[in-house]
UniProtKB/TrEMBL annotation, chain A:
Protein known as: Multicomponent Na+:H+ antiporter subunit D
Molecular function terms from GO: NADH dehydrogenase (ubiquinone) activity
Main location: membrane
Organism: Devosia psychrophila
Keywords: Cell membrane, Membrane, Transmembrane, Transmembrane helix
Organism ancestry: Bacteria, Pseudomonadati, Pseudomonadota, Alphaproteobacteria, Hyphomicrobiales
Domain of life where this protein originates: Bacteria
Automatic annotation (TrEMBL), chain B:
TM region(s), chain numbering: 6-21, 28-47, 75-96
Organism of this sequence: Devosia psychrophila
Protein's recorded name: Monovalent cation/H+ antiporter subunit C
GO cellular component, one term: plasma membrane
Superkingdom of the source species: Bacteria
Membrane topology qualifier: Multi-pass membrane protein
Amino acid sequence: MGTFVLTDALIQTTTAVADWVLVLPLILALLGAAAALMLRKTANLCFLLAMLVVVAIIACEITLLLRVFESGPLSMTMGKWLPPFGISFVADLFGAGFALAASVVTLVVLVYAEGERGQGVDDNFHAMVLLLLAGVTGSFLTGDLFNLYVWFEVMLIASFGLMVLGGRPLQLDGAVKYGFLNFLATAFFLLALGLLYGLLGTLNMADILRGAPLANPAAIATIAGILLLAFGMKAAAFPLNAWLPASYHTPPAAISALLAGLLTKVGAYALLRSLVVVLPASRDLLEPVLVAIAAATLLIAPLGAIAETNLRRAIGFLVIGGIGSVLAGVAVPSLEGVSGAGLYVFHAMLTMTALYLVAGLIERATGATDTRHMGGLYAASAPLSILFLVLILATAGVPPFLGFWPKLLLLQASLGQGGWSGGLLAGALLINAVLTLIAGSRLWAHVFWRPAPGGATVLPMARGAVWTGFGATAALAALIVAAGLWPNGLFEILAVGAPDMIDPARYVEAVGLAGVAP
Amino acid sequence: MDYVLAALVGCFIAAGIYLLLSRSVIRMLLGLVVFGNGVNLLIFTAGRLTRAAAPIVPAGLNQPDGPVANPLPQALILTAIVIGFAVFSFLLVLAFRAYQTLDADNTDTMRVAEPVDEPNPPLSY
């Protein structure tokens, strides 16, 4: 052993200014949240600040995405320590793409919320939204599992705050269930991290990739099982899904749209990242479990939506069904499977948010939350009914909308897999599409098509509020339709991004750990 | 010593999960605390247990003189304790507010968000 030279463990070069685009979204979101907290007494200024910050974040993330697309994954390590000692941030195409989708969704929700919220309310809404965005973006861009835990907690505390904003009894009830289950999920995640650190002595994802094949496979598979439990709870996969329909319908529509669009998708992404990329050998051992969970989630969630009469609770079940599709991709990690799962996360972020936003508009127009008290809305607002129908079709995966492409990829993957597991998943995916269509069209028929039941009224709304809310939702729906009609760009990104998930050699190289002996 | 602590972690996690299975919100809160502390103790054990010795490399040596514990898991627990405490405090206040507002500290009676009297599917059409 040579003499101990401290500088060998330190980064000697300064990070290129262009590389800062990787952490800039996080810095902007955190600083923006702090500034919004200070400006909370001036609601209008707060809104402008939040919009400005999110637009800047989107600009950074587009730059990041293009850069990663052209020259491979980008990494940056904090605190001057070389990886695996310093905390690494790594952007590959999946992470950067999801981060971009998250900030686009946040922008839409911010505009929508301006119409929904009363004037001059100083309730820290904007600060918490930016904090939530910071947590979500951090989860997508981090290359270190403990850092992922920290971003989970940032996201968690921001979502707690948003959940109880306004403090209606309904929200407190939902927040208790949401809070306990999600805190428990992060505790399980931490438990897995403790075991993993004890086994491998590292929590850097690229370093785990190198160390895990040398460790005891049974021990690593146990850890992967605990991770599956923790992230499955976060993502609301069956049988850990009960918290979602119990809580997501309780806050105001804009907030539930934001939570539905971002939170469960982060759980699904964490599953994809940890099982498919970081611990592939353990994923192979867990495959029968994953197939069973995916099929059960796909089949049971839309049945819940069919049985439900509360509009936003029914949509909550559709969100869970989407998680089943992502899990199907995790269970069949071929090129098509991983591409399908990634594209589905992207699609679900946009579509589920838009569905909740439309539900909010419907609730404002009818003054009810239960479909039994709704009806005849078609006569009052035909555009709203078209919007809802488009989103339902996109959720079910009917062409030409965005939801069709990931479903197609996942079906191809399951059929390509063959055997009982492939057949089960393919059947579950198809039945899920049909059941989702039934659930969605039932909701549509009840809310829009049938004559208004006794006592159901269509409330007049303030014009400005309608236009910001409707405009924001329509813009998001237009994005979903456009991405479905011209999916070539997305497929080009997948063609580069999905191979990096299956064989993360470029990822490890970007972190700077390739070739170094473990 | 490691075995003793490993057994203790097992007891903490088991007790935490048992308490979390309760319907009473206060017991669930206690369960979360016990569970969280079990996890912290686990990370602590993962970092090697030695008598008090600072993990500092003396000048001129390649490694610390004598056995020391890994300081990194201790830094991890510190982070986890702070975060866990903050989230727990929030849940404590939330449980109290829920008790005041909903008059319920039992999850069976906390049914505002999920009403019990909803009709079964065919009737709800």
